[in-house]
Every structure is written in structure tokens, then in C-alpha cells.
Specification:
It comes from Mesorhizobium japonicum. This is Ribbon-helix-helix protein, CopG family. The chain has about 70 residues and is mainly α. It has a domain at about 10-40. It is about 40% helix and about 0% strand. It is globular and about 40 Å long. The N and C termini lie far apart (about 45 Å).
């Protein structure tokens, strides 16, 4: 299979706890890079059947590790 051409860049900022959790998950699942791990988490999150998100929430009100509504 030919390699996937990735033409879009997404930059995010994480705090120390979030990056440590990402790295721990990545090593546990044996993803070779942070980028690969983040892509897998995005795929998994988009595929998950979840309740509607809190549409009134502002991004400043929650972090990567905080579930909606906390």
C-alpha cells in the first residue's frame, strides 16, 4: 500500500500531565510516534458512540483529560 500523503498540520498545546498521559498510552500501545498516537486517538474518538457534547462549553473550560461536564 502506498504511503498516505498528509498535507495538513494541526498544532496543539498540552500541559505536562496531558503529555505524560499521551506518552504512557503511546508506549503501552506501541505507537512509534506521538503523531501516530494522536491520529489513533482521534480516529477512536470519532468512531466512538458518545452522547452529544456540551455544546455550550468553551474550550478554556476543559482540558484533554477532563471529561465534558466536569
Amino acid at each position: 500500500m502506498p504511503p498516505i500523503k498528509r498535507t495538513y498540520r494541526l498544532q496543539i498545546m498540552l500541559n505536562a500531565e496531558e503529555i505524560a498521559d499521551l506518552d504512557a498510552w503511546r508506549f503501552e500501545k506501541r505507537w512509534p510516534t506521538r503523531s501516530d498516537a494522536v491520529r489513533e486517538l482521534i480516529r477512536s474518538g470519532l468512531a466512538a458512540k458518545a452522547d452529544d457534547p456540551d455544546r455550550g462549553a468553551r474550550s478554556v473550560d476543559f482540558g484533554v483529560l477532563d471529561p465534558p461536564g466536569d
